[in-house]
Design goal:
Layout (H helix, E strand, L loop, with lengths): L1 H12 L4 E3 L10 E8 L9 E9 L10 E5 L11 H7 L8 E5 L20 H4 L6 H11 L10 H15 L4 E6 L1 H12 L4 E7 L12 H17 L2 H6 L3 H14 L2 E6 L6 E6 L1 H11 L3 H4 L2 H9 L4 H15 L4 H11 L6 H8 L7 H11 L20 E6 L7 H8 L5 E6 L12 H15 L8 H4 L20 H5 L3 E4 L6 E6 L2 E6 L6 E7 L2 E4 L5 E8 L2 E9 L2 E8 L2
Parallel strand pairs: 4-5, 4-6, 6-7, 7-10, 10-11
Antiparallel strand pairs: 1-2, 2-3, 3-5, 8-9, 12-13, 12-19, 13-14, 14-15, 15-16, 16-17, 17-18, 18-19
Helix pairs in contact: 5-6, 9-10, 9-12, 10-13, 14-16
C-alpha cells in the first residue's frame, strides 16, 4: 500500500514538467509537458531527447492509481495528435482514470524522425519505389545531424514509457495498442510486467513474425475471403461472377506493362496521367482491405479494372502513398523494422511466402534495400520469442485483416493464460464499414478495463455484427464542375461539439479540407454543389448545409452514416 499512497501523492503534487494546456478540439482540462530521456538508454550519456506527454485528468472521484495509455501504430504514429478523439471515445473511463498519451521517441513532438519520401507535386514520383533509395540516404544524412537513428527501437520506447509512468506517479498502466502498438504493448508486458494492469490489443502483431515477410500471404488470404463472401451474396455474385479471373487479368496486364491512367493529383487537384505498375496495383488492393469500408469496394474495383478502368485503383494507390505511407514517421519505421524485422528474414523465405500472391515480394525487396542504406540498431533474439505474462489481455482481430489476421492473435493468446480473443466479422485492420463494430469493440474494451479481467465480459454484440452490402455500381472518380461562387460558398472555418475544428479552403480553384492536427489538407472531389468526396475514400464525403448562398454547417459521412458535424464559425 505504501506505493499506492506515494503514487497518488505524487500526482496530487503534480509532476514538475506538466502544465495546464489548451488542445484544439478538446473539451475539458489537459496537462502537457516534455519529459527528457537519454537517447542512448544503455550508455546514459550523450544526447537527451524530449518526449511529448499529454495527460487528461480523471473528471470524477475516486481516481484510480492506474492510468490508461495508448500505443500508436505504424511504427510512426504520434498518439498525442489523436487526443480529442481519444477523449471523446473514452469519456466514460475518464470518470475515474487519467489518460496518459506519450509520443513515441521518433514521432510527433518526441524528436521526430521525419522523411519526405515523395517530395514535390509530381504524382508519378509517389507511384514509384516504396522506399526511393536516394531519398532514404538523404533522409538518414539529414537526421543524423541531430539523432542517432539506431537508438529508436521498441525496447527503448517501452522503457521510456515506464519512466514517464514512474515520473507521473502511476502504479500501473492500462495498455491500449493497435497494429504496431500491440507489438509495443507486448514488449511492455515482457519488460515491465509489474507495471501493466491490463492490455487491449487490436490487430495483433506476434513478436515471432517479422515484417513484411507475411504481408503477401496475409493479403492473399484476405482477398480470398472477400471473394468468397461476394460469391455467397446473390447481388455481388451476379455483378461479379468471376472475381478470381478478374484479379488474374489485372495482375497480368499490369505485370506486362504499367497501365496509363488519368487521376486527380492529391496535392494540386489537377488531372494528370500516371502509370500504375503491378507493385502499386497490389499495394492498392492490400490497403483497400485495411478498413472494412474500403474493403467492400474490392469486388467492384477489381471487376472495373478488368474491364479496362483502373482509375479508382490508381487514385487509391496515389492517395495511400501520400497520406498513409508518407504520413507516418518513415524514419522511425525504418529504425524499428531495420533493427527488429529485416535481419530475421531470409530472402528464400520471402520469395517462398510471396509465390502465387497478387502482392508478390516487391515490398520485402524494397524494404531490404532501404535497410541496407539505414543505420541498424541492436535487437536481441529474445524479442522474437512469444510473450508469456499473467496480465489480463483482450485481443481483437478483423476477419478480413490483410496484415494482422486473426491467426496471429490466436498465436499470441496461446501464451497469455488470462486472455480472450475476439474476431470481428468482415473486419479489416480497422472496422469502419461494419455497422456498429467500432461501438461494440469500444464497449467491450471499456468493460474490460473497468473490470480488469476477461472473466464474465459481455461480448454478445460481436455475434450480431454484419458487414454492409457490397457496392455493385462502377465507381466514378471524375468530379463535377463547380462555379467559383459555389466553391466560395463552402469555404470557411468550422467548429464542432466533438473533435478538432475544420477549415475548408480554396487553392488554385480546388477545394481542400484540413482538421486541426492533420499534417496536410485533403483534396475534395465534388459529387454535387453540396457534397464533396474525400479523394481516395470512395464512400467518405462532406455534406454542406447551404443557406442563402453560404454554408452554415458541414457533416462528414462515412458510408452514408454521420461521423462528425461542424457549424461555421463567424
Amino acid at each position: 500500500m505504501a506505493f499506492l499512497f506515494l503514487s497518488l501523492a505524487s500526482w496530487a503534487a503534480g509532476a514538475d514538467f506538466m502544465k495546464p494546456c489548451d488542445i484544439p478540439g478538446l473539451k475539458g482540462t489537459a496537462k502537457c509537458g516534455t519529459f527528457e530521456v537519454w537517447e542512448n538508454r544503455d550508455a546514459k550519456a550523450g544526447r537527451r531527447i524530449g518526449l511529448k506527454v499529454v495527460v487528461l485528468p480523471a473528471t470524477g472521484s475516486p481516481r484510480a492509481s492506474d492510468a490508461i495509455t495508448f500505443l500508436g501504430g505504424g511504427p510512426g504514429e504520434a498518439v498525442t495528435e489523436e487526443t480529442p478523439y481519444i477523449a471523446r471515445d473514452f469519456a466514460a473511463l475518464l470518470a475515474h482514470r487519467d489518460i496518459v498519451l506519450v509520443d513515441q521517441r521518433g514521432t510527433g513532438g518526441s524528436h521526430a524522425l521525419e522523411c519526405d519520401l515523395y517530395p514535390g507535386k509530381d504524382a508519378q514520383t509517389a507511384l514509384g519505389a516504396f522506399f526511393p533509395a536516394e531519398r532514404v540516404r538523404q533522409c538518414r544524412a539529414a537526421l543524423e545531424k541531430n539523432a542517432d537513428v539506431r537508438m529508436y527501437t521498441t525496447a527503448a520506447m517501452v522503457d521510456d514509457l515506464d519512466d514517464v509512468r514512474a515520473a507521473l506517479g502511476y502504479d500501473r498502466l492500462d495498455l491500449v495498442g493497435g497494429s504496431y502498438g500491440t507489438r509495443a504493448a507486448l514488449a511492455f508486458l515482457r519488460r515491465h510486467p509489474e507495471h501493466a494492469r491490463v492490455a487491449v490489443l487490436e490487430g495483433v502483431v506476434p513478436p515471432t513474425k517479422a515484417m513484411p515477410l507475411y504481408f503477401p500471404r496475409s493479403a492473399q488470404n484476405a482477398i480470398e475471403r472477400i471473394f468468397d463472401e461476394c460469391a455467397a451474396d446473390a447481388a455481388c455474385h451476379a455483378a461479379f461472377p468471376d472475381l478470381r479471373g478478374d484479379l488474374r487479368t489485372i495482375v497480368a496486364k499490369a505485370t506486362a506493362n504499367p497501365v496509363p491512367v488519368d487521376v486527380l493529383n492529391p496535392k494540386t487537384g489537377d488531372t494528370v496521367r500516371v502509370t500504375l505498375s503491378r507493385d502499386l496495383l497490389g499495394e492498392a488492393l492490400r490497403y483497400l482491405m485495411y478498413q472494412s469500408m474500403t474493403g467492400l469496394y474490392v469486388p467492384v474495383l477489381v471487376h472495373q479494372a478488368a474491364g479496362g478502368d483502373f482509375a479508382p485503383l490508381a487514385e487509391f494507390a496515389l492517395t495511400s502513398r501520400l497520406q498513409l505511407v508518407n504520413g507516418l514517421g518513415t524514419g522511425l519505421y525504418l529504425s524499428v523494422t531495420c533493427a527488429e524485422d529485416l535481419p530475421f528474414i531470409a530472402a528464400a523465405d520471402a520469395e517462398r511466402v510471396a509465390a502465387n500472391t497478387f502482392l508478390g515480394d516487391y515490398r520485402y525487396l524494397q524494404q531490404r534495400a532501404a535497410c541496407d542504406a539505414w543505420a541498424r540498431g541492436a535487437a536481441s533474439a529474445q524479442m522474437r520469442e512469444p510473450v508469456r505474462a499473467q496480465t489480463p489481455v483482450l485481443l481483437v482481430s478483423g476477419a478480413w485483416d490483410p496484415v494482422t489476421p486473426a491467426a496471429d492473435a490466436a498465436e499470441v493468446a496461446a501464451t497469455l493464460p488470462h486472455s480472450l480473443s475476439l474476431v470481428v466479422p468482415a473486419g479489416g485492420h480497422g472496422y469502419t464499414g461494419v455497422p456498429g463494430a467500432e461501438e461494440c469493440v469500444d464497449a467491450i474494451s471499456k468493460q474490460f478495463i473497468e473490470r480488469g479481467s476477461v472473466d464474465g465480459l459481455d461480448t454478445t454484440c460481436v455475434a450480431h455484427l454484419h458487414r454492409a452490402p457490397f457496392p455493385t455500381k462502377p465507381v466514378d472518380t471524375k468530379p463535377v464542375a463547380l462555379t467559383s461562387e459555389q466553391q466560395r460558398a463552402l469555404t470557411g472555418h468550422y467548429v464542432g461539439e466533438s473533435g478538432p475544428p475544420l477549415d475548408i479552403t480554396l487553392d488554385n480553384g480546388k477545394l481542400f479540407a484540413q482538421a486541426a492536427g492533420d499534417p496536410s489538407p485533403h483534396l475534395l472531389a465534388p459529387i454535387s454543389p453540396t457534397r464533396l468526396r474525400v479523394l481516395g475514400r470512395f464512400s467518405t464525403y462532406f455534406e454542406f448545409d447551404v443557406e442563402n448562398g453560404k454554408a452554415a454547417g458541414v457533416t462528414l459521412r462515412r458510408g452514408g452514416a454521420q461521423s462528425m458535424a461542424w457549424k461555421r464559425s463567424g
